[in-house]
């Protein structure tokens, strides 16, 4: 059975994301039979309006804008091209965009796609990476391995 790797791609295509991509290149031969899933999670935007004197709140989800979707596609294409330059088969690389908490989306996709290894860039285990690490610790039955890269 092919192995499945999930690579988290951030909005800025940061140095740590680029290091994560290179780590996959360093860890695996390009002819190793596995699928790579590139995931960019667009953080969801919510508006909560409180009404003075009332105990109710109005909660609204705002879908991602066209610019956010376009930018997500651009960073995923950059990541895919980088893997292509490292010699990986572009036919075995799938680009995915989702909307929600990046940490929760990483875990959700890992479960749905039966991922064996998650690779993400680390910023000192802060922000989404720390949250995803927490989810991994709680739900470690979801997938085999977690690799934060600095």
Automatic annotation (TrEMBL):
A family per Pfam: Usp
Domain of life: Bacteria
Species the sequence originates in: Dictyobacter kobayashii
Protein known as: UspA domain-containing protein
InterPro entries: Rossmann-like_a/b/a_fold, UspA
Taxonomy of the source species: Bacteria, Bacillati, Chloroflexota, Ktedonobacteria, Ktedonobacterales
Ranges where the UspA domain occurs: 3-127
